[in-house]
Amino acid sequence: MATAAGIEEDCSVNNYGTLPLVQSKEKNDRHLVPVGDITDTLVKQIIWVRGRLHTSRGKGKQCFLVIRHQFSTIQAILAVNENVSKQMVKFVSSIPKESIIDVEGEVSLAPSPINSCSQKTVELQLKKACISLFVVSTAEKRLPFYEDAMRPEDSKESMPHMTQETRLDNRVIDLRTPSSQAIYRIEASICKLFRDILDAKDFVEIHTPKIISAASESGANVFQISYFKTNAYLAQSPQLYKQMAICGDFGKVYTIGAENLKRLGLSFNLEPERNREYKFPLYHSET
């Protein structure tokens, strides 16, 4: 439909845009379905999804989106029709990658498996009058990297990949990659398994000091740091505190904590201002 001025009317003007800053002025009862939970069982249902805009590709009167939340990705399709305006498609096509978006769409079966997404058998169709797409948080138009960070540093592919130094300088973005997500989840699962086994045997978990005023052991393993105009040392072992807990009638105790890598004989430089190799924490457990 055209207006008197010859400008095409935007029939979707209330269904897209950038949301204002959340200041808890009102309660939103919107139910957001995690991307990983969208399966064949939700086909023909209209749902809300929140995630990062992984990729977008505008093609004529259509726009193909990939929405990502942690490990999971799903494809969404937006096309001009009687309920979706050209202005809406243009707006969606211009959203920077990695922006957080809220999408309301209908779950439908994909005509063929979508190999580029984790949700291969379903997709979101944005066609009906009730569909919406709003930007919750807009990312910078040019981020340092993301797709390049998903390739290993020693990759032999001709495509770009990131060095360790670049990853550490842009750590927040690097943590979004599937490999970083997986490492921390594996670590959490191992710690949980360790806790579950010992808790079932009536052990008590204790948290011991990690910075102490004097070296607990002599030798090359001592790591000195500057702490409020004096010297302090990284604790090399929780042994003393476990013995104190035993004498305090705790019975059986255990602790899980970040390990002093020097104590394990690894050649890592732990000083934060000079460390360019230490990427993921190494944990040890003792009973």
TrEMBL record:
SUPFAM superfamilies: Class II aaRS and biotin synthetases, Nucleic acid-binding proteins. Transmembrane segments: none annotated. Residues 164-257 form the Aminoacyl-tRNA synthetase class II (D/K/N) domain. Residues 47-113 form the OB domain. InterPro entries: Aa-tRNA-synt_II, aa-tRNA-synth_II/BPL/LPL, Asp-tRNA_synthase_2, NA-bd_OB-fold, NA-bd_OB_tRNA. Keywords: Aminoacyl-tRNA synthetase, ATP-binding, Cytoplasm, Ligase, Nucleotide-binding. One of its GO terms (cellular component) is cytosol. It holds the Pfam family tRNA_anti-codon. GO terms for biological process: aspartyl-tRNA aminoacylation. GO terms for molecular function: aspartate-tRNA ligase activity; ATP binding; RNA binding. The keyword ATP-binding applies. This is Aspartyl-tRNA synthetase. It comes from Didymodactylos carnosus.
